[in-house]
Amino acid sequence: MKAENVAKARNVIGEGPRWNAAEQRLYWVDFIENQNIHSWHPATQELLTYRTEAPVTALGFRRSGGLIVATHGQIAHFDLTSKKLSSFVSVDDRPSMRLNDGSVDANGRFWVGSMNSEKPEEPHGSLYRFDPDGSLHTMDTGFTVSNGLGWSPDQRTFYFIDTFRRAVYAYDYSAAAGSIGNRRLFAQTAESDGFPDGLAVDAEGHVLVAFWGGWKIIRYDPDGKQERELRFPVSNPTACAFGGRNLDELYVTTARLALTADQLAAQPMAGDLFRLRLDFKGQQEPLFG
Questions:
Q1: What is the pTM of this model?
Q2: Which parts of the chain register pLDDT below 70?
Q3: How far apart are CA 119 and CA 153, in angstroms?
């Protein structure tokens, strides 16, 4: 399972990959300095870039077309044709707070976490759920950098990462109500692993976590035990998503942010998009709405 460099994106901070099954394309964001949404088509190698009016930190696909996205303090619609953002709702108007990672659940709701961009180590972040009817719900609070969201295949467990605490949490989840409860520690990651960033949950219920500064992705079994480690030629894997026609390919975004000139010289592929061909499969990406 060797990591293959598939798109020389050179992102400052590539994040939030999502596989569009209908288009057979991968979408992701590069929101520090560049303010871009990218999409890549494996069959043709076509890489498209959409410049956005505001930094987009996370995205999902809408049932009615286009993208649902998180920006600094808003959840919005991004029209891929006009390249325009249309706000759905303001989430937090404090200047230091911004939205970070987000994901759509199987019932078409958009979940997104926040963080203090000036003091990311402070537990000021919250977790929100935005419903298709336009209602916004605060689901939990007290996080540092809100990251990595995902659901178990049986829709009974929700996973969420608190990056600066190096914690992967698990909650009991009700798919019908969109509610969470009984937060508990699923995995306490080691300092030597780096910082846990994005995650994906596969069809077997294992949780894959990308580690910023760790050169790797760790796959945890449903009990939170490390099952395997996937190594990378760059230090900052940021997030991962399953793709391909059989959902047996793992696409991984990476970052160049904060690397020195010497580190960049030693990691010429930092910021690129990688793919691993796997012996297990992921879950299909749901649609918002």
A1: 0.98
A2: none
A3: 35
Tokens of 94: 């404090």
* Contacts for 228-232: CB closer than 8 Å, 24+ residues apart: 230/1, 230/3, 230/276, 231/3, 232/3, 232/274
The domain ranges of the chain are 4-288
Catalytic residues: 197
Domain spanning 4-288: CATH 3.20.20.60: no
The CA-based angle 106-85-133, given to 5 degrees, is 40
Q: Measure the CA–CA gap between 79 and 237, rounded to whole angstroms.
A: 28
What are the DSSP calls for 117-165, one per residue? SSSTTSS-EEEEEE-TTS-EEEEEEEESSEEEEEE-TTS-EEEEEEGGG
pLDDT at 47: 97
Two structure tokens written together for 5: 């460099």
In single-letter form, the type of residue at position 4 comes to E
Let me know: does 180 contact 173? Beta carbons within 8 Å: yes
